[in-house]
Write a structure and sequence with these properties.
Number of domains: 1
Radius of gyration: 18 Å
Number of strands: 0
Shape: elongated
Helix content: 55-70%
Largest sheet: none
Structural class: mainly alpha
Order of helices and strands: HHHHH
Number of helices: 5
Length: 172
């Protein structure tokens, strides 16, 4: 039996009282809202106090490549989750651990890819303010989403998730 089949076959753990644990990580915000909020703040600051990173073609090319690479990463990670038959939305129950594809290298390829797209767009549009504007939203993503998802997966999949977590870094 492959690792993927083994992980998919694992049943959710039960609480000590015999009741099922709440089947949601309880994230505080839908992650795309964080990225859209950062874009809105960064764009507003850029309009009020324009600061440009560089104006040559190389910045635009690097930005385009970074954004495209991030988009491909997000799409690939979502496809891996669909193949495994689990939900993508963090407010819905996780039915299987995904450990193949990009999930072999990072536990959060969707968030990592979205961050790459964000940075790539800032470079492509030669805008400075979106870069520092993202920082507080990434802190919120880490605390209010990622850590909660990890606690949820530890409770739901136990030692299997802990073993995966020990082998694969959170980011890169």
């Amino acid at each position: 039996m492959s690792m993927k089949e083994t992980l998919s076959a694992i049943e959710p753990k039960q609480a000590e009282e015999g009741h099922a644990l709440p089947d949601s990580p309880g994230v505080i915000v839908f992650p795309p809202v964080l990225f859209v909020s950062a874009i809105a703040l960064g764009t507003a600051l850029q309009i009020l106090w324009p600061i440009h990173i560089w104006s040559n073609l190389s910045g635009k090319i690097i930005g385009m490549l970074l954004a495209l690479t991030g988009m491909i990463g997000v799409i690939s990670a979502k496809r891996a989750m669909r193949r495994a038959g689990t939900n993508i939305h963090p407010g819905e129950p996780t039915t299987a651990l995904v450990t193949d594809g990009q999930y072999r290298f990072t536990r959060n390829p969707i968030y990592l890819g979205a961050t790459m797209v964000y940075f790539g767009l800032a470079l492509l549009f030669n805008a400075f303010w979106p870069l520092p504007a993202l920082a507080p939203f990434l802190v919120l993503l880490g605390w209010g989403v990622v850590l909660r998802e990890e606690r949820y997966l530890e409770k739901k999949f136990g030692q299997t998730y802990l073993a995966y977590k020990a082998q694969v870094p959170r980011w890169i």
